[in-house]
Specification:
nine-stranded mixed β-sheet, 382 residues, Peroxisomal Thiolase, Chain A, domain 1
Length: 382
C-alpha cells in the first residue's frame, strides 16, 4: 500500500510504427520513443537514473540500450517475462523510486519484427515434452485455451470475432493504427484458419514499433508542466511457462495479479473507466475480463458480444485498437500503459473516453504464462 500514488507516469510515446524505414534497428526505435517520451515529460535525458527494458533481440538488453541511448543509469532492470515485462517494470521502478534508489525511470521497448519478415525472435528452446506434437508456437497454445473455453462455457466463434471487430472500430479512431479498414464478424469467421478455432483475423498483427514510459515520484510529477497519471496499484503473477503445465486452460494468473493491483489501489473493477488489455488473440480479452473481475468466469463471451466493448459500448476496451488492429511488434505490454496514460490525460482525440479517472493496463507474457496488472488514476483518485 505504500506504493499507492507515490509515483506517476509523466511521459509516454511510441516510435514509428507499422513497417518502419529500411535499415532501422530495434534500438533505433527505442531511441525514437525515448526522445519523444522525454520531450513529453519535459525531462532531460541526463536525469534518467533508472533503465528498465526487455528484448528478444539483445540478451543483455539493459547494457545495449544504455550504450545506445548514451546514458549511465545507476539502476538497470532487464528482466524478461514476455510481453508483460514492461507492465512489471512499473512495479520494479515504483519500488526503486519509493526506496530512494532512483528518481527517474525510463521503461523502453523496440522491435522490427515485421521488417524482419515476421519472424518471432525467441531465446527459448522448444519444450521437449511438447515438441513432438509440432504445435505452432504460440498460436496453437492459445487455440487450445480457446477450444477449452468454448467447450466448457459455450463461448462461440462469433463472440471471438466480435473482439476483433471491436478492436478494428477503435483503430478506425486512431490515426496511427496499422489496420483501419472496416471489419465485419463474417470476415473474421471466413478468414483463413491458422490453428483451429482461430483464424488469421483472430490473431494479432505483426508490426514494427517501440514505446517509452517515464516514471518519477508523485512529488516531482506535480512540479512538471504536464498532467501526471498516478500509479495506484500494480500486481504480477506467473502460473506456468509451458502450456502443458497450465493448471487450467480457462483460468489465467490475471486472477491473482488483478487482485493484487486492486488491493493496492483500494479499488474494484466497478471503479475502472477504461481498460487496455494484451490482445494477442481474440480469446485473451475474454479470459482477462473474467479473471480481472469484470464478469464471472464463463461469461466473457457474452460480455464482449455485439459491440459491448466497442466504441459506444458498455465498457471501453483497447481504445487504441489493440494488438489486433493498432500494432503488435512482438511484445505489446508497453502499449497498454501508453494508451491508459493518454486516456487519463485526455490526449486521445476521437477515441477519448470522457471523464476517465481510472484506467487499467494489463500485460500478458508467454503462453498465458505471466500476467501483470497496473491501475492508474488522475489526481482526483488520490
Amino acid at each position: 500500500m505504500t506504493l499507492r500514488g507515490s509515483t506517476a507516469v509523466v511521459g509516454v510515446a511510441e516510435s514509428d510504427l507499422g513497417q518502419v524505414a529500411h535499415g532501422l534497428t530495434p534500438l533505433d526505435l527505442v531511441g525514437q520513443a525515448t526522445v519523444r517520451a522525454l520531450a513529453d515529460a519535459c525531462i532531460q535525458k541526463s536525469e534518467v537514473d533508472g533503465l528498465f527494458t526487455a528484448s528478444s533481440y539483445y540478451p543483455m538488453s539493459g547494457m545495449d540500450t544504455a550504450e545506445y541511448l548514451g546514458i549511465r543509469p545507476s539502476y538497470i532492470d532487464g528482466s524478461t517475462i514476455g510481453g508483460s515485462s514492461f507492465v512489471s517494470h512499473l512495479l520494479h521502478a515504483a519500488a526503486a523510486i519509493n526506496a530512494g534508489v532512483i528518481s527517474t525511470a525510463l521503461i523502453v521497448y523496440g522491435s522490427t519484427q515485421r521488417s524482419d519478415g515476421g519472424r518471432l525472435v525467441s531465446p527459448s528452446k522448444p519444450n521437449p515434452f511438447e515438441a513432438p506434437y509440432r504445435a505452432r508456437y504460440p498460436i496453437s497454445m492459445y487455440a487450445m485455451a480457446t477450444a477449452r473455453h468454448m467447450h466448457q462455457y459455450g463461448t462461440t466463434r462469433e463472440q471471438l470475432a466480435d473482439v476483433a471487430v471491436a478492436a478494428r472500430q477503435w483503430a478506425q479512431l486512431n490515426p496511427v493504427a496499422f489496420m483501419r479498414a472496416p471489419l465485419t464478424r463474417e470476415e473474421v469467421l471466413s478468414a483463413r484458419m491458422i490453428s483451429d478455432p482461430l483464424t488469421k483475423l483472430d490473431c494479432c498483427l505483426v508490426t514494427d514499433g517501440g514505446g517509452a514510459v517515464v516514471l518519477t515520484s508523485a512529488q516531482r510529477a506535480r512540479q512538471l508542466p504536464g498532467q501526471p497519471a498516478f500509479l495506484l496499484g500494480v500486481g504480477e503473477a506467473t502460473s506456468h511457462r509451458s502450456i502443458s503445465a497450465m493448471p487450467d486452460l480457462t483460468v489465467t494468473a490475471a486472477a491473482e495479479s488483478g487482485g493484487r493491483a486492486f488491493e493496492m489501489a483500494g479499488l474494484t473493477p466497478r471503479d475502472v473507466d477504461v481498460i487496455e488489455l494484451y490482445d494477442a488473440f481474440t480469446i485473451n480479452p475474454i479470459l482477462f475480463l473474467e479473471d480481472l473481475g469484470f464478469c464471472a468466469k464463463g461469461e466473457g463471451g457474452a460480455f464482449v458480444a455485439e459491440g459491448q466493448i466497442a466504441p459506444g459500448g458498455k465498457l471501453p476496451v483497447n481504445t487504441n485498437g489493440g494488438g489486433l488492429s493498432y500494432c503488435h511488434p512482438g511484445m505489446y505490454g508497453i502499449f497498454t500503459v501508453i494508451e491508459a496514460v493518454r486516456q487519463l490525460r485526455g490526449d486521445c482525440g476521437a477515441r477519448q473516453i470522457r471523464g476517465a479517472d481510472v484506467a487499467l493496463a494489463h500485460g500478458n507474457g508467454g503462453v498465458l504464462s505471466s500476467q501483470v496488472t497496473a491501475i492508474f488514476g488522475t489526481e482526483t483518485t488520490l
